[in-house]
């Protein structure tokens, strides 16, 4: 199963989102990712495998900002990427499945 968590507030979103993903670990997944917005810039980190892999990526390059989304999911059979993020300016959406090509 998949899990999605979001945060919008005055505190740094990264730690809050990571804690939220840890609470969803029981659901099962094969990849995780996070996107945080700060000053109009979208920063994304994603990792295959357990949540500790994403936490390791976040330790290498910390995300900072008061607005973010985080996601765990099972990879669809036709998708080689752990998570599909669609971005347009500061708007972000997360896809759980296959996206048709225009």
Question: Layout of helices and strands, plus pairs?
Answer:
Elements: E1 3-8, H1 13-23, E2 31-38, E3 41-48, H2 51-60, E4 67-73, E5 84-88, E6 91-95
Antiparallel strand pairs: 1-4, 2-3, 2-4, 5-6
Fold and architecture overview:
The protein has helices spanning 13-23, 51-60, and strands spanning 3-8, 31-38, 41-48, 67-73, 84-88, 91-95. The chain is an alpha+beta fold and 102 residues long. A four-stranded antiparallel sheet has the order 1-4-2-3, with helices on one face. A two-stranded antiparallel ribbon has the order 5-6. It has two helices and six strands. Strand 5 (84-88) and strand 6 form a beta hairpin.
Task: Compute the number of strand runs.
Answer: 6
Largest beta sheet: strand ordering: 1-4-2-3
- Going by helix content, strand content and strand pairing, the class is alpha+beta
List low-confidence stretches: 82-91, 96-102
String of helices and strands: EHEEHEEE
- Alpha plus pi helix count: 2
Largest sheet: 4 strands, antiparallel
Query: What fraction of residues sit in β-strands?
Result: 35-45%
Distance between the amino and carboxyl termini: 27 Å
Which outline best applies?
globular
Q: Using the CA coordinates, give the radius of gyration.
A: 13 Å
Kindly state the percentage of residues in helix. 10-25%
Mean pLDDT over all positions: 77
